[in-house]
Amino acid sequence: MAEEHILVVEDEVKIAQLLKDYLTAAGFKVSCLARGDEALEKFKSLDPALILLDLMLPGVDGIAVCREVRKYADIPIIMVTAKVEEVDRLLGLAIGADDYICKPFSPREVVARVKAVLRRTRPGRSHRRLIAGPLVLDEETRQVTVDGQPLLLTPSEFSLLNVLMAFPERVFPRSELLDRVQGYTFEGYDRTIDSHVKNLRKKIAALLPDREVIHTIYGVGYRFSLSPRTP
Fold it and tell me: Chain-wide mean pLDDT for the chain?
């Protein structure tokens, strides 16, 4: 398999070099950029498999970069943020980031997260198609349609829907969904799943306005079931 290309967008030179060293040692090809506007300019030509995107960048900030990339690409994006920026982290998830990592971080943890995200976003070997009424999910092509219309999802949204559709009516605790979707469990990351569920519901409702698909089980988690939407 060819080296997978990781784009690191980070203006702190020491942090960028540290990430590059660890990711290169793990077998990845790595490009580093220090400005958000430069990342937008060069993104298509670099064609990365994943972006590690710092939140605070000169030129264009990470939120704006994430929002712009999501207009035409569904590649995984992991945001790198400071712990004090919780609101911005949640905003990043709301506009399509797949995950976030807080500074200061362990570079080994970053590598593990990158591997976990890429592992779950690679095309699968199975040919399983999940069908629930008008909703069809194809694991091989990683495509979802509603009444034949494509449903454009981020990698995390696809993985979340895949897990829920595979076990209709089963109630999943947030912690289990986090483990199945993100590939790890970590205290305080339940909001990551909540953000992905919110985004997924909004996208499905745009094509299926009369049906409720993902139900909240208060105090527990979520389950998948096709039901008429409550007025």
Answer: 85
> pLDDT digit string (tens) for 57-84?
999 999 899 989 988 888 899 988 876 5
| Domain span including residue 37 | 5-121
Reduced to 3 states, what is the DSSP secondary structure of residue 214? strand
Per the listing, tokens 């807080």 go with 102
Sign (positive or negative) of CA dihedral 127, 128, 130, 131: positive
What the block records as the tokens of 103 is: 């500074």
**CB-based contacts of 61-66 (< 8 A; 24+ apart in sequence):** 61/36, 62/9, 62/36, 62/92, 63/88, 63/91, 63/92, 63/95, 64/36, 65/9, 65/36, 65/39, 65/40, 66/92, 66/95, 66/96, 66/97
Q: Are residues 109 and 19 in the same domain?
A: yes
